[in-house]
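re: that complex we talked abt at group meeting.

here r the seqs, copy pasted straight from the sheet so there may be weird spacing, ignore it
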Amino acid sequence: MVRLLSSGKLSNKAIVVILAVIIVVSVSSLMYVNIIGRTPTTTATTTTTTTTQPTTPGRVYVVMGGATFVNPQMQAWIKKYMESVDASAVIEYQSIGSGAGEAKFIDRALDVGVSDVGISKVGYEKLVNSSRKFIQIPLIAGAVAITYNLPEWNEGVCGPLRLTGEVVADIYLGKITYWNDDRIKSLQVERCRDLLPRKEIVGVHRSDGSGTTALFTTFLSKISREWFEKVGYGYTVDWPRDKLGLGEGGKGNEGVTAKVKATPYSIGYVEVAYAIQQNLPVATIRNKDGNFVIPNVTTIAATLERAAPELPPPEAFWGDLPWSYMYREGVNSYPIVGTPVAIIDLETSIEKLDVIKKFFRWVLTEGQKPENVVEGFIPLPKAMAEKALQYLEKIPSKG
Amino acid sequence: MRDGFSIVLKTSWNPVKEDYGILPAIVGTIISASIALALALVLSVSTSVLIVEVLPRRLRSLAEVLVDLAAAIPSVIYGLWGLYILSPFLKEFVMDRVVELGLGGIFGYPRGLGTSIFSASILLSIMITPFAASIIRVGLRSIPIHIKEVLASLALTKWEVIVMELKYIRRTIFTALAVAYGRAVGETAAVAMVVGNTLTTDFFKVFSPGYTISSLIADQYPNAEAYTYMVSALFTAGLFLFMLSLVINVLVMIYGEKR
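got the structure back, here u go
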């Protein structure tokens, strides 16, 4: 009994100590959260380029980072460039996600940040407010493919499934529930309309924040007023179909693919590079001219060629760029395309800028040739690459 | 802290409107870890008893090695196995059967691969059992010899002896389970693969895909900084995770094994 009591006292003391710890930790973290929420740029100046840099004399070390989607392409470019063009440069790409790439760029931890859809409004304002000098260029092209699992559908006879942006938006909004909905039926070729079963459509989407989702939802927002008002667009959105019990998230392109493959009567969206590599069934989407197009090199380039003249000036806000890519005119323009965007810091050392300029000049010329483009990625159309090359001239060089 | 405490009570996660609620993730974490714990209690106690008391001496060390090996498997491997083998299996043989009985309204409806809070719970119970079992095993071994002699002298059946022994080490069992619960609550890689990662309004239904705090953070953090408040929301979720672990640790200090 005595032992019990004394041990009881001990634990009382322990509880007091622990409660104190809880309070201190919560209060300090709340304050920290507050600081992040309110004055996000105050710490930016103190965390300047303190990344560990091997200071081998004569070698310039450039750190880039951001979007995970372009990672394989960036690694391929960097490898090729360092092997065969400039052996003295050391370039590194960190695949940390678009949002993190943007934040690290603002904190000056990265010399070049890469984002799937361009820097966000929040980030852009931070940069402008601190009067940072930077330029932006497109790197490569990509698109979002819509894939499906429809056991009854015979692609050999019927061709790929035909969809329109309005129908896809209404599927994900939960307004179209069954595959044999008249609005889906009427899009298909006559002889295949009755193949569509009365089964509920399962809408698969990315569960993690991703540029793919951003492009896909930008497309839906542009095409459907209701989607724009109810859902909007961004790396992650609140999916209406989930609320009906007819939607599901998958982590990464591979997660979405696994779920679509395992779920009969489902529909999902993935990066076109991934759809090609995995040989997934891909739906054709009706473009502005009324043609059903499949995403491939020709159709994606066709869209971007039309969008090239509208490429904003290098230091403008590029967050609306995906919006201008979507649902473009043109006989064979694929309607859901995007270009990852690199944002280059003009305030780093002149040696680094020299390497960066040469590297991106190579990326926009040699790098766009088929032998240097990783399978599934699509080179920029000439007009766009040339415009980006002009932007690069804004980078000061040694001479 | 634009939202104050209401972030904990909201069920929406809508970055477009900068509207964040972490209730589904908190509930998902607690439900999945609790179901896992209940199963792990049965599994780990029976494994330990089997190894220490039942198996012939020669097989014991082999069984011990196997259990310890199971504890050493990286969680991402468990996650892949859970995603491609365990979840579809559970969906076909457990969840679909239960739904056929008309209980879908209570438990929710599994989708696709069967990724759900339930699958995550089962996977977690398998993952944490080796941890709990190894602590309980040591507890069983360290029962003083005079206690064992007394038990032996009472002419009890083997079953009764085991029950008495387990009662004797109940604090150790509690500690073992608390350690296991701590791991279950914070597990990220494996759970993120099987929990379904979907924020729904019926987040308390175990067969529906759900979220846990750690999988929410893993999913959303890479792009969080493109939004104004998402980082703060995720930090709040992290704070809750930390407090959950802290509560468990306090309980261990009060009711756990005494040295």
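couple things i noticed - Chain A has two domains: 58-142+311-321+338-392, 143-306. Chain A has 16 helices and 13 strands.
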